[in-house]
Amino acid sequence: MTDSVFSQIHHCYLIKDAAEKALATHAMVASVRQREFDTADWLQAPSVHEPGRPDKPELVNPGSVSKRKLGSPEGRAVLMHAIAHIEFNAINLALDAAQRFPDMPRQFYLDWLQVADEEALHFTMIRRHLQSLGYDYGDFTAHSGLWEMAENTADDVMVRMALVPRVLEARGLDVTPGIQQRLAKVGDQQAVGMLDVIFRDEVGHVAIGSRWFKYCCDQRGLDAEPTFFALVDKYYTGNLHGPFNLDARVQAGFSDNEIALLTKDL
Fold first, then answer.
1. Exposed e or buried b per residue across 233-253, where buried means at least 16 C-beta atoms within 10 angstroms of its C-beta
2. How many C-beta atoms surround the C-beta of residue 230 within 10 A?
3. What is the pLDDT of residues 17-62, one digit of tens each?
4. Distance CA 259, CA 101 (A)
5. What is the CATH number of domain 5-39+64-263?
6. Which is nearest to 258 in space by CA: 215, 223, 218, 228?
7. Is the full-model pTM beyond 0.90?
8. What is the pLDDT of residues 158-210, one digit of tens each?
9. Residue spans per domain, the chain
């Protein structure tokens, strides 16, 4: 187990330092792509623990997260910090998907390692921009809601695929264009360009979630569309409310019927 694919993923998952985790994830994914592996690693795996995370940022309730007006450099830094926190959590979420669920096809693990690799790139990119504004990751508070969904979906790969990429990450597709407009108004074109990269990659990440959610439904003889909304009703405490980025959601694997159900009350 010392050199198994699982142990390499798990090592990155447990790293606390954010920059070190990002670098280690890049190296691990490059290594794993060159190797053959099967699910024996996962079937023999030790229990999965909480992910490694730095002591800062301090995690608080969503209503207590740092807020500033976007027109000031500090306000832009607060926004960049919030995005960096999302991307850092996304690294752990992708690594967790790749290590937690046994007996999936090999491509499932490669897909989620690709996601982890891209999320690590996103985090590093946003952190550098945050540093250019005179701040760093950990300088402001952040909230823990992103990881709560991982805990709530830890026991079932189908539920994880439905709720994390197709609800939480898909919400990013809805809100990113508006964030870019706000940043453009205050002249931060560099941040706008970074969000272009993140948006493009996140469409692919949600599409990966859609593909594997539908795979799990097929394996269990379930109709994917009603199953998705039933799982949202059971596990998601908020409301799936618009406005929705319909074009991006279609690219990311949402069916016409799902789009109709999402928008029926708008």
1. eebeeeebeeebbeebbebbb
2. 13
3. 999 999 999 999 999 988 888 777 776 665 667 899 999 999 887 7
4. 29
5. 1.20.1260
6. 228
7. yes
8. 999 999 999 999 999 999 999 999 999 999 999 999 999 999 999 999 999 99
9. 5-39+64-263
